[in-house]
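Appendix B, example 12.
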Amino acid sequence: MTRLTSANVGLLAPTVAVPTYDRTAVTPGIVHLSVGGFHRSHEAMYVDALMNQGHAMDWGIRGVGLLETNDQMRDVLRAQDFLYTLVVKNGDGSWEPRVIGSMIDYLYAPDDPEAVVAAIADPRIRIVSMTVTEGGYNIDALTGEFAGDRDDVQADLAPGAVPRTMFGIVVEALARRRAAGLPAFSIVSCDNIQGNGHVAQRVFTAFARLRDPALAEWIAASVRFPSSMVDRITPQTSEADRLEVARRFDVEDDWPVLCEPFCQWVLEDDFSAGRPPFELVGAQIVDDVEPYELMKLRLLNASHQALCYPGYLVGYRYAHEVTTDPVFARFLVDYMTQEAIPTLRPVPGIDLHAYVAELIERFSNAEVADTLQRLCANTSDLIPKFLLPVIRAQLTTGGPITRSVAVVASWARYAEGKDEAGEPYQLDDVRGPALHAAAARQADDPLAFLTDNRALFGDLVDDSRFTTPYLALLESIQRQGVGPTLADLDSIVTAAVGS
């Protein structure tokens, strides 16, 4: 067994692709905030691919862990000289391993936030990218604005404070660049948020405005926030994955990353200080990301929500189990073609119906073994962004919403905390206790899940075009189960609307 380190990378089996470039010659150009599996299967992979072609040697990545829980990532990456194995799991059962070398450092903010600020302020850094999840942007769910009154934000705004939040750290680095007369870097969001560049601009400038209005004006004028659409299914690495990578490839890697073959990155060409030539390794560089991101959010991401709650309730635990069940597969295809696609603009170069078929194929890749538990997590951040916009758009045009409403009803039933076999589970959601409490009241008040979570559902709570099918589908799911309900959706809703 060969331990994965810089000294040993040349000793790995020939079946494992390794960096062909001199890693000692790589210099930093990117700082990435919150290094997880997705970043390592996506942006870091693209940079590594460029380096293997002899490009972007001055675009090495410094990773940053922002949370106390990132200490394990810190320890693993440092022990492995920031190398890791990326394994593509093909649907035919074959695995393709590749060692990624584009990350050259990893800083742990809880240990030394000053080191992180200094690293970002380094004039060689031209891009700060992030994967902090939808909840990391500190946006008030009710107002849609930056929540500047939260304790951690206020602590960072105190005079002389050592910054701890993402906002405090990045804005302090920008303040130092401004004071030194250095150019600003670009801030690139790689999170599944519609208009993620615009959202990033709003929250960082809002924090800066609370700190120093003049600094906020400089940031608004100097920092570019390109939007992006990112896509690659990357499940959490399990201990079984780690052992299987070791068995197949004779490599000792404490945190490999395993992912599907598909990979897409659509990136707005709007940068403050240049960018790597990502188009040379398959990224799509465009003027307008919105058509692509809406396609992904309302088809792929919303379909993840459409399969995970009903699938989990009937006893499935993996995405491929759901999408190879004909009833569930039909439900997903009908949601995408009848309800989601009509809300989309034309997407240059994309056949949307072929994209739907490709999604079902991707979801059905048993080798990826994407867990429903992962897909069910953080729902209160996801449904309002991925699915509810489809419902609202369809209500505006008079289009069908039955399948979308069935997803919401399945979520409400899922929030009760027991599947159809009576097996209990915990809700992995920051609003978990409140969601569970609302679901527990459904027996006496069938609308409780909606009314108790008005901050999520807004005016839909008062719209009978939504609540009437919702009540009918929730009652059916509770009475006869998910499977029979999905098989007879239209009849159930027609009867309810006509009664």
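The two ends are 68 Å apart (CA to CA). DSSP finds 23 helices and 13 strands in the chain.
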